[in-house]
Amino acid sequence: MSLVSLKEIAEEAKSKQIGLGAFNVVLLDHAEAFVKAAESAGKPVILQLSQNAVKYHGAFEPIAAAIQECASKAQVPVVTHLDHAEDVELCRRAVDFGFTSVMYDGSKLPDDENRLTTAKVVEFCHAAGVSVEAELGEVGGKNGVHDPSARTSPEDAAKFVEDTGVDLLAVAVGSSHAMTTRGAVLDNELISRIAEVVSVPLVLHGSSGVSDEGIVKAIKSGMTKINVSTHLNVIFTTEVRRFLAENPEIVDPRKYFKAGNAVVEAEVRRMLTLYSCGK
Ligand SMILES: [Zn+2]
After folding, report:
1. Domains in the chain and their CATH numbers?
2. Quick one: 14 exposed, middle or buried, by C-beta within 10 A (0-12, 13-18, 19+)?
């Protein structure tokens, strides 16, 4: 049984002051590569399926089944996590399907509505033993506009966790989603202040835009779950472009996907090892 609760491994990581890698699955290949990387690194891993990826497939179940299957056969602890769900019904489906964690994203809602809806999601998730992550202070960038100026206030964050009962909290500390360069500068002083007053593990979204050194400092300042997606898309696509340019006669997608998946697997193995560096 390798499926584990996010709360359980995140609390353990927080107490050891190490980071956990969370990577987005768009295709079956991603789930396979992430599990292989975690097994060879000997580290737990979080397989994330976003509401946007569900939209891409046109349905939740086929890709969710692939993720559950890869996770349940893994030799290391694996969390299956619904990422950035704005749809409460999708959260329910993920719980019914056996996912072990859900991120409900009400960050675009008015504050009181976000709190109320998040608390409702927490109620049915906890009844099924499923962890809940929420976001406070919108981490922008999904619309292509990178504004890393949003900041979560430590006091608001503590009150939000108290009001809703969430198990992990994503905070805005200087990163932005979907960045293809790694120059974002995080506010480590703010991370430390939030970590001091918030009882639950913290989550960094938009980690693709942050350097390795920046992530390690964020983990040392109190960040636990590190979400990476765009960075892996950059290295996958760069490798596929290179492979196809060198082998213009190739038309079999297995050939160029194999090349792209290999670099993704190696990079995930490297990142999982880097994040779990400890104090
Ligand atoms: Zn995110």
Report:
1. 6-275 (3.20.20.70)
2. buried
